[in-house]
């Protein structure tokens, strides 16, 4: 990431801690919020993490959040709530992680918060 040596260092520290067993076994190796203007390397960082941790670009799950800005579209990400059509089927995000639990999830184009 351009000009973000401190952020890259923090990511590396967290991943070293995960690899040495200093973090809970059943949780993610790391959760990182990378924000900034276009062209600063956020997506490239996610690609590099997927490659280094899980062997390649196939381990990167990319969700374009600009498609889910309306409250009624959020169920497409996490699945329908009880009592609604599609309950129990999972959503785009939950199913992608279920199918590939060892992956990097990139929530891209997060312009404004969505009501989850």
Explained architecture:
The chain is mainly alpha-helical and about 120 residues long. It has one domain (about 5-110): Rossmann fold. The protein is built from 4 helices and 2 strands; from the N terminus they run ααβααβ. Strands 1-2 form a two-stranded parallel ribbon. The longest helix has 15 residues, at about 5-20. The protein is globular, with a radius of gyration of 16 Å. The model has no long low-confidence stretch (mean pLDDT about 85). InterPro entries: ATPase_AAA_core, ClpA/B, ClpA_ClpB, P-loop_NTPase. This is ClpB protein. Keywords: ATP-binding, Nucleotide-binding.
Structure described in brief:
The chain has one domain: P-loop containing nucleotide triphosphate hydrolases (Rossmann fold). By secondary structure, it is mainly α. 35% of the residues lie in helices and 9% in strands.
How does the SSE layout of this entry go?
Elements: H1 5-19, H2 42-54, E1 60-64, H3 74-78, H4 92-99, E2 104-108
- Shape designation: globular
CATH class descriptor: Alpha Beta
**Share of β-strand residues:** 5-15%
| CATH topology grouping | Rossmann fold
Give the domain tally. Answer: 1
Tally of DSSP helical segments: 4
Terminus-to-terminus distance: 29 Å
The main sheet orders its strands as 1-2
Biggest sheet, in brief? 2 strands, parallel
CATH architecture: 3-Layer(aba) Sandwich
Instruction: Summarize model confidence as the mean pLDDT.
Output: 87
CATH superfamily: P-loop containing nucleotide triphosphate hydrolases
State the order of secondary-structure elements, H for helix, E for strand. HHEHHE
Quaternary organisation: single chain
GO molecular function, one term: ATP hydrolysis activity
Protein name: ClpB protein
Organism: Klebsiella pneumoniae
Domain ATPase AAA-type core: 28-110
